[in-house]
Amino acid sequence: DKIQKAIEMINEAQDEVDDNPKNKAAAESNLSDAKEDMFDAVNYFFEGNYSKAYDYADDSYKNAEDALEDAGGQTKENEIEDLLEEVQDELDDARDDIDDADDDDKDVEDAEKLYKKAKDTLAKAEKAFDDEDYDEAEDLADDASDLIDDAIDAIGNDSQKEKAEEAKKEKKANQPKKV
């Protein structure tokens, strides 16, 4: 698995180096080191020395990651880490907005429920990130962001029950009075 991830990172770094001349010399040097480490990893793997194979694959991955960054690219891990930080900031801002609305005696019941769902979804995204499942982490972070937007939109909106009561009162108020 580590060898496969290192190979994927080498390919990603090679693409970035080919497409972007930024720090090309440093990127190519790190990419060369990554390829040498990968060669050693594969050799050790076939010799049955899996511990050394893992270590060299890990070094290969890190060198390829450095090459990618030298060339101006960003790893999927870094992209998702940035996304998670952005969504956490959105969540913090939503908490403040909900608290402010509550202080102003606005209905925040629906917003609170959506906020909790968003918070739970973001926690799942962070768990997926920790498990290195970056695609799942990205999907869950996007879902959390959507829930945060929904929570903000729900601030001040009366709950369904309150809307029904309001409609009932309005209907009663609009009926002609009997004399």
Mean pLDDT over all positions: 88
What is the helix/strand order? HHHHHHH
So how many helices? 7
Number of DSSP-assigned strands: 0
Instruction: Please state the CA-atom Rg, rounded to the nearest Å.
Output: 26 Å
Helix content: over 70%
Main beta-sheet annotation:
none
Strand content: under 5%
Shape: elongated
User: What are the low-pLDDT stretches, counting only 5+ consecutive residues below 50?
Assistant: none
Separation, N- and C-terminal Cα atoms: 84 Å
- Structural class call reads mainly alpha
Structural write-up:
The protein is mainly α and about 180 residues long. It has helices at about 1-20, 25-45, 50-70, 75-105, 110-130, 135-155, 160-175. It is about 85% helix and about 0% strand. Helix 1 runs antiparallel to helix 2, helix 4 (about 75-105) runs antiparallel to helix 5 and helix 4 packs parallel to helix 6 (about 135-155). The chain is elongated and about 95 Å long.
